[in-house]
Amino acid sequence: MPEQTDVLVVGAGPTGLAVAAELALAGVGAIVIDALPERSGQSKALALQPRSAELLDSRGWLEPLRPHIHARLAEGHFAGLPLDYSVLETRFPHQIAVEQARIEEVLEARAGRVRWAHACTAVRQSADEVAVAVETPAGPAEIAARFAVAADGAHSTVRRALGVPFPGRAARMRLAVADVTLARKPTGLAEAWAPPEFGSGGFGYLLPLGAGVYRVLFGGEEQQAKERTEPVTAAEVQRGLEAVHGDGVEVAAVRWGSRFSDASRQVERYRHGRVLFAGDAAHIHLPAGGQGLNLGLQDAFNLGWKLAAVARGDAEESLLDTYHDERHPVASRVLVNTRAQGVLTIPDPDLLALREVFGDLLAGPAANRRLAGEVSGIDIRNGIAAAPPRSSTGLRLPDTALDCARPSLLAARPVLIGPPHLEAIARPWRDRLDTAAGNAGMLVRPDGYLAWTDPDGEQGLARALGRWLGAPLQHDANTGTERTRDHA
Ligand SMILES: Cc1cc2nc3c(=O)[nH]c(=O)nc-3n(C[C@H](O)[C@H](O)[C@H](O)COP(=O)(O)OP(=O)(O)OC[C@H]3O[C@@H](n4cnc5c(N)ncnc54)[C@H](O)[C@@H]3O)c2cc1C
Predict the structure, then answer these.
(1) Which among 435, 400, 406, 434 has a CA at the least distance from the CA of 420?
(2) Looking at 376, 409, 424, which one is the last position of a domain?
(3) Dist CA 82 CA 289 (whole Å)
(4) Are strands 202-210 and 434-437 parallel, antiparallel or unpaired?
């Protein structure tokens, strides 16, 4: 007999761990598996964008990261061209420089036990369940779940097993990343976290991680011919750095290295029956501007509470379709902006001219605000089609209303803020909804996005509650109790 669970999360990277942490907070049982023997401790990503910082903070999960923060960078960047984040209306108008491994540790502590060395090898699903074959240290096993989250990264086994297409553009540019120690540093190397520097031969990103370790990103002709799994050697890094910094640099040792590309792909549907795709399993792109981990985290915050509501029986399964509707366009947009950033980095005799013109344009406030809002994740708006004028439905909760919502968001519960008479409308959802006094009416989802605001009209409130929280409680005259439709 296969082991049973409500949700199986495949992949314990930042995306899978964040979904599992959200499910744990909502009291929904989940099993998390990962093919690796243990956490790698390696960090591809090195920064949190403002919206991700807000989300982690809303759960109290930013606080444990504080001792590990290297810097708060007032600038984001677009292909290395600075974006001024001080114009963003957020309590975190900066990138938070912190390693992916530290973020994963914090999430794992909240996600429950991860089953390492458990590799998903096959997936089949029926109308009622999804069955996942798992290779474990004790031999083959099967786990049956009501839902599975495919968070198994760019080369997703779940995606392949289900035959889900991954359309997009193949790699044109192959790059390498390595954490190295240096025997000799290039003159004038800034010992601070900063966006990459460019020369006409492309870029050779050299960033101090502390304790004498430097992050190097590079990509020249040599890297184009390498297989993805080929180790990154010290000699290769040396040549990569010399191409940009000249011979004034000497690599001592490579601590860790990996290869990546500018392939740009996205699954067409994030939901395939009982399987939900999230993070790199759903979308890949050049890691430009520091957006991939952030996209995955935000997928997880969008999906987690919806999956919990469906698994608990509070909401209909169709709520899961809104995960696709809301998150697919956000990643599509990131694929566009990272492809544009790719063009701003590909070695070309006219690269510096292109960057100069683009940099001048970005110095203008409108262009800066537009791209800063996009790369930071602050300007995301869900489902705006139906929102009336002056409505802020679909936007994130403004910081000005945060105090009213904070206790609910810490517990990942929705909250209705507003004058007392709104409570009467919301009473049939009181088993799942918090209320808080405030002047402006707003219904805040557990992921901090607004599901209803005053300008939508009070008649729209019950509709929004039904749409996002599921069927209202109904009085059962026989037993004198109240039940939701799904529990009846
Ligand atoms: C050089 C580089 C720099 C980057 N810098 C940034 C940055 O600054 N900011 C940013 O936001 N993003 C950045 N990214 C992107 C970011 O690292 C990824 O988007 C992020 O790791 C995606 O997280 P994930 O959890 O979706 O997938 P992953 O981190 O890939 O995790 C997937 C997990 O699934 C597991 N797995 C795989 N197959 C199976 C299987 N069959 N069964 C079970 N488990 C399996 C893997 O072992 C892994 O632990 C960068 C990427 C690169 C390459």
Answers:
(1) 435
(2) 376
(3) 10
(4) unpaired
The pLDDT of residue 75 is above 70: yes
| Residue 159 domain boundaries | 3-167+265-376
Measuring CA to CA, which residue among 85, 52, 95 is closest to residue 370? 85
Cβ(249) – ligand 1 distance below 6 Å: no
pLDDT, tens digit, 9 for 90 and up, residues 222-240 = 899 999 999 999 999 999 8
Same domain, 179 and 316: no
Q: How far is the CA of 212 from the centre of ligand 1 (A)?
A: 25
Please give the structure tokens belonging to residue 243. 């191409």
Q: pLDDT above 70 covers what percent of the chain? A: 94
Strands 264-266 and 283-284: antiparallel
What number does the ligand 1 atom closest to the CA of 154 have?
Answer: 30
100 lines ligand 1 (CB under 6 A): yes
- Residue 13 CA to ligand 1 center (angstroms) comes to 6
| Residue 445, both tokens | 């989802």
pLDDT tens figures, 175-227: 999 999 999 988 777 777 766 666 555 566 788 888 889 999 988 888 999 99
The total domain count for the chain is 3
Domain CATH for 426: 3.40.30.120
